[in-house]
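hiii, so i know i said id send this last week but things got crazy w the move. better late than never?? heres the sequnce for the chain we talked about at the cafe, plus the structure i predicted for it. fair warning i was half asleep when i ran it
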Amino acid sequence: MEINDFPKDSSNSNQLEKYAKDLAEVCKSEKEKRKELEAANQQLVKYADDLNKTILELKGSQQELQKAYLDTIHRLVLAAEYKDEDTGDHIMRMSRYSALIAEKLGLSANEVQNILYAASMHDVGKIGIPDSILMKPGKLTDEEFGTMKTHSVIGANILAYSKAEILKLAEQIAISHHEKWNGKGYPQGLGGDNIPLAVRIVGLADVFDALTSKRPYKDPFPVEVAIDIIKKERGEHFDPDVVDVFLENIDEIVKIKEEVDSTEVV
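okay and structure toks below
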């Protein structure tokens, strides 16, 4: 008997055909799904690429806005104190001193940058002080000195109510940079850790630069003399820890002074 002579089971044949058809449909469906998935993946890659480009563009725009914002602050500070020809160099020196001390004290990069820019606004309140007092070549009377001391409150009022992080810090520095570690400063008589660290840093940097700079009422002290004065005021006028870091890095401080002074326009 030949194989073909066996009777055929039509039900089995139909079942096999159905399985084959179903399998073909499944394969076709899977192929279509793969194509759809590949298309979706390609679209996601494109979206990711577009998103990266957009982020880079936004970062660039944000950086430009930040530069413009900081440049505007710097120019306004110079405008407020334009009458003093040394103000620009003073601001640059003491701001850089402050940033260096902040960095050496272990503050974050963001805090260091904020101090660098906020420090420049410490004396913005002097815009409200009469020139006759501000530029007086001799010693101020008690009444004149009382008027001069109001620049800290004037500066804080000018900078008040801003939502910008740098200007909030600048307000704090403006009102408190004449406070002393021993509580004998002004205008609030704050002392010790009640004086914010950024203010303690800026206060020392400001005094060092004032000591080593020519002012209407005095010639500059040599760096060595200024260092001796700051050492004597450790724990009195200045935070001891800030003084120690300042002295440990005095070579870098002097280098900053020399760099800024060498850029003066003759």
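btw Residues 133 and 144 are 6 Å apart (CA to CA). thought thatd interest u
miss u guys!!
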